[in-house]
Amino acid sequence: MAGDATSKGGWHSGRFAHTFAAIDLGTNNCRLLVARASVSGFEVVDAYSRPVRLGQGVALNGALCGDAIERTLEALGVCAAKIERHGVTRARHIATEACRRACNGDDFLALVRARTGLGFEVIPPTEEARLALASCENLLDPSIPYGLLVDIGGGSTEVCWLRVVERKDGIAAVGTELIDMTSVPWGVVTLTEACADGRSREQPMGRACYDDMVERIRQSLRPFCIRHGIGGAVMRGEVQMIGASGTVTTFSAHHLGLKRYHRATVDGSRLARDSILTICAQLAGLSVAEMTAFPCIGDDRADLALAGGAILEAVCRQWPTPMVRVADRGLREGVLMDLMRQADREADLQCRRGC
Q: Per CATH, which fold does 10-123 belong to?
């Protein structure tokens, strides 16, 4: 489904000779991007996102369930059709926490290949962190020496501790060094199932249950914080934070008062810590049914919004940076950038051999 394009010169060589695709199959969402290279990065040709809830029940039962498998196969069938229609020549498809954790993850991915022709690679948390960082690097401020990149997923939450440096080579304003990362085994799906499973949509969670979710996350973050002295660096004003997840982008859209979600407005926006805590306090007293009335939450996100808020609040209380930079980008964008760089390297090697 993803072959090689004919090598040509100039604007038709390297990344410009291909149409690229990336699928990120997570615990909650199935996301596809199809893109072509541009001078400034890439232009999206097609995109698709569906909340398939693949990881439903995995934290409790250790296996992917039949309904989740069928929902995901249907979504991946749509992805396969889009990839075929756009003549994709370079692709990489990745699966994360749900397939890592499930005992039948390999069997499921074999079924995906048989049904759709799509091959998936189950990546470790370290690769998730690297890809997320690759997509968000240009949002960092080179004048602040350290950074935290927080990616709240469906099955886990990844936190990267970064050293930030200013580049002077004209390619990019900022560079990073990944000092360390941690993967917290709680995401919006797994935390909801552990703490709120069985509660009716009309019944508010209650402050005690919400505070328990916050504390679970903070307990998981404290050893990482202590190991690197992150708290002290935050107090000295040496740390900036990027949030890359549906939770953070939804909070930003709500804070901005958007009636409909608009990616260009949200991506790169800034969300004050005090605003985040205010929104969390507001949501903590609501039922799922009440949260569906929020324009940028709706039915698709309402049952997971409180867990996402608890994770984000835990991060903000553990590391009280005054502001979070919001990134509506993630693993797909990181994969696309990798694919384009690989195409450039191969074209350069072919050119050298032909000289």
A: Nucleotidyltransferase; domain 5 (3.30.420)
